[in-house]
Amino acid sequence: AARAWERATELCRAVGNQRGLLLSLWGLLVFAWASGDLRGARGLAEHMLQLERASSDAAVTVTARLCLALVAVCAGDLADGSAHLAAGKDVAERAPADALVDVTFADLRVQVDSWLGLARHLQGDHEGGDELIDGAVRRARALDAPFTMATALAFAISVRVLTGDLVDVSRLADEMIEITDALQLVDFTYHVRVTRAWALASAGAPPAE
User: Fold this and answer.
1) Which of 175, 51, 68 lies closest to 112 in space, CA to CA?
2) Which residues of 159-189 are buried (b: 16+ CB within 10 A; e: fewer)?
3) How many CA atoms lie within 13 A of 165 on its CB side?
4) pTM tops 0.85, yes or no
5) Cα dihedral across residues 195, 200, 206, 209: positive or negative
6) Residue 209 above 60 pLDDT?
7) What is the pLDDT of residues 164-207, one digit of tens each?
């Protein structure tokens, strides 16, 4: 997968396709991040930040800030991650309505608000976190984009686990399973089924559930 994204990056640079380059760099970063290579992911995020300085495209700015943020949050630096997300959110809210849809497979506004909502929860601001997460879910529903909806629900489920809202975990998990089954997102489906089973067991449901 990494080699495919590297080749896509080379081709996009060769033809000057900035949006394609943004997507290929996102793919490389997510691969590095998911593989536990936070140093490599950070380097790619900083490269995106350099693209931002030479571009007036809001999608470049928001994607760069999102990438720096997800690395920071996963490294435990919630303050730095939240600052990047807040900066990205500010740009996103001033961008045209359709400028940030499907830039990184899912809507960038939904991604930024979901990550910022999670960061707020981890910082102890549960009310602020819920407002951001619930807003991201509402936007995803309005867009009616399955992958964006799956992304928003994944974060909504995660924060409900953090706050112990077991009933809502089960309800949201059922909705997400329907979407991820249809999209054949096997990893998503597996993890959400495990989370749903945990929520049901914690709530005292019979094993058959």
Assistant:
1) 68
2) bbbeeebbebbbbbbebbbebbeeeebeebb
3) 13
4) yes
5) negative
6) no
7) 888 899 999 999 999 999 989 888 899 999 999 988 888 776 65
What are the b/e assignments for 119-155, b being 16+ CB within 10 Å? bbbbeeeeeebbebbebbbebbeebebbbbbbbbbbb
Q: Tokens in use for 164?
A: 């112990």
Which alpha helices (DSSP H) does the chain contain, by range? Answer: 2-15, 18-34, 38-53, 58-74, 78-94, 108-122, 126-143, 146-163, 166-183, 186-202
**At 94, which amino acid appears?**
R
Q: Which two tokens stand for residue 36?
A: 């536990």
Please count the residues of the chain: 209
